[in-house]
Amino acid sequence: MSLNPNLTAERPTFVTHLECSMTGERYEADQLHGLSSVGRPLLVRYDLDGVRAMAPRAMIEARPTDLWRWRELLPVRRTADIVSLGEIETPLVPIPKSGGPNVLVKDEGRLPTGSFKARGLVMAVAMAKALGVTKIAMPTNGNAGAALAAYATRCGIETIVLCPEETPEVNVREIAAQGARVYRVNGQIDDCGAIVGRGAAEGRWFDFSTLKEPYRIEGKKTMGLELAAQFRWKLPQAIFYPTGGGTGLIGMWKAFAEMETLGWIGPERPKMFAVQASGCAPIVRAFEAGEEHAERWEDAATVAAGIRVPKAVGDFLILRAVRESGGTAMAVGDPAILKAVDDCARQDGLLMCPEGGATLAAYREALRTGLVDEDDRVVLFNCATGLKYPMPEAGIALDRHGEIDLGGL
Ligand SMILES: *Cc1c(COP(=O)(O)O)cnc(C)c1O
């Protein structure tokens, strides 16, 4: 039983078809799809005239503020297919001391399984369930695997998760704890992806790699919808997004276009800053070279595991969105990332993940080089709770039986 009408009411749905993001080739809705015939992501298309007529903005605003309030702009047809663990609207937290007066952190660490991967996976799993999938495999740097495990287990779908060997221990364990079979592979995430792809080609499971099924983008899109509502339908001037596969950046960009078509927002767009780590910056390199696609980054290494993605199948979609927005792609080093995490926690009491720290480090750099102004309203994405990551050692032992120098504590 749920007390939330977003999870119980049937709503009209408006998906018309899917479309190849590269060629525009059309695919039927309500069928199982992976990549398009040219190996690129599929995008879900909606009857937006229908949405405009049946689901005015004010009606959606009157609903409880969670991810499922946006149902008419989401692909799930039947309410019974929703597999929810409580996908709340995440708060915008000011960080005046470590960021500045106009900086807000969208704290995605509050979501189920502690990361924004929950947004994408809750949608992808609901659609897999609706379309009769019983076994899923996925390569992951950690957070996506945890979200997949949680949602798939909840609805009885079997999961196999492959992680690069350097995946943080806590992620490997949370994946197992939530019912998936998890393996460490001696390689990077795309090496894990190759194994998943082989099994999928043999018909052993459905491939849930980033952007290789169409519905994660739709889940991640809700970040853009939420931001618009939270900003009273006037988007911020800049968004700093830690970019691995880029699902969130691509999803938000899609959400903005859909909302403009619906007349919910105007034509103004935030500058999109795709933030990567200096030790793995394929999108930055391609952006700077003016390329449409990004070459694989060899020997990727960074503390920010979630953005350690050497090759992204949606590279051209990320690059296109960043360029259209007038933003840029930026790389920041691990020392700047760790300093940003530390500053934000000590000065503003918000413990970000390293990927979130990367956005603060990039913001600082953008401020210094004049890419943004201190007056600009800026949103940084903290994509996971800092509690999932290793922290510096602390806690000096106190002997309760001995003398304690209370003044010296
Ligand atoms: C997955 C992940 C990212 C990257 O997200 P994409 O949308 O795939 O680019 C960033 N930070 C964290 C913590 C992640 O888990």
TrEMBL record:
Residues covered by the Tryptophan synthase beta chain-like PALP domain: 83-383
A Pfam family it matches: PALP
Gene Ontology MF, one: threonine synthase activity
Xref: PROSITE patterns: DEHYDRATASE_SER_THR
Keyword Lyase: yes
Keyword match Lyase: yes
Cofactor (UniProt): pyridoxal 5'-phosphate
Protein keywords: Lyase, Pyridoxal phosphate
InterPro entries: Ser/Thr_Dehydratase, Ser/Thr_deHydtase_PyrdxlP-BS, TrpB-like_PALP, TrpB-like_PALP_sf
Annotated protein name in UniProt: Threonine synthase
UniProt-listed Enzyme Commission number(s): 4.2.3.1
Enzyme class: lyase
